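In response to reviewer comment 3 from the previous cycle, which asked for concrete evidence that the modeling workflow produces usable outputs, we include below a single protein chain processed end to end. The sequence was submitted unchanged, and the resulting structure tokens are shown without manual editing.
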Amino acid sequence: MNQTLRCAASPSLALVKYWGKADGGINLPATTSIAVTISHLETVSQVTLGSDRANEPAADEVFIEGEPQPESRFAPFFAAVREALREDLHFRVESVNTFPTGAGLASSSSGFAALATGCTAVAGRRLSGAELSALARVGSGSAARAVFGGFTRFAAGASFAEQIADENHWPELRIVIAVVQRGSKPISSRDAMIRSRDTSPYYADWVSGAQSLAEQAETALVNRDLDTLGRAMRQSYLRMFSTMFTAEPPVIFWLPESVAVIRACEQLRADGISAWETMDAGPQVKVLTTAKHTAQVCDRLHRENPSGELLVVGVGSGPRLLGTGAATASTSA
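The workflow returned the following structure tokens.
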């Protein structure tokens, strides 16, 4: 009988962005990113182990929300799993997300973190944090961070991410996610990144200035200084989007509702409330604030975009094994 288990992992939200790939390996970052693993949102993956023996799957299969996925998207990852385990194993994976897929909420980070954890566990192997991070990176650069809970650093040119602080470091931190559109993005993050790198006249400046922002953000994070962290975050996402806006053709993920949320955060700060926004490759806006101010932030954002959805999350832990059984969205915390 084939072995099966389930694994859940949460997305990694970059506070200072990973945008661009370095030469010399798969998904090596051109810029250092600083990130937080967020709570409550999860990818839940059921992983079934097979081999090339009779009556067992001879190829890897991946289904997300019941839909079969292109083999080419996952082939490098599964090849890396077999190399790491030194066994000719194959896997069937069925994944569901408790949040919109492919909509700018870092589903690839939680997805490949769950896959890396689940595939190695179902094979009876336990990797170090660095080894698991390097394996997840092959599937998605941001997944290298999502194998850790709390706060992480993924240094430029590195093959794995590192944990800066665990999920208990900043218990009062909250992230309010303004979901302004639930549908999939018109272009994938990977393709948008490549287009920005290859065609934007500002890409080189983005790379050269990223390290300073990462250092500022890490110091602020360690000191739990939200306003200093927020200013570094704001510069990072705006500089990143400058490479997209000036790509050829331009990549424009922002929607009018996205801009309305950004303006609302400006007004909140003018009123003395720490509310610092960031965005990734998609229209959603993530706002960092504190537990004390969460209700006020949600109230203001709802007034600016009454038809939008608000998700309130905190700092999350790393991937967890759930035992056996079908992957269902109801397992989310």
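The radius of gyration is 19 Å. We consider this sufficient to address the reviewer's concern, and the full set will be provided in the supplementary archive.
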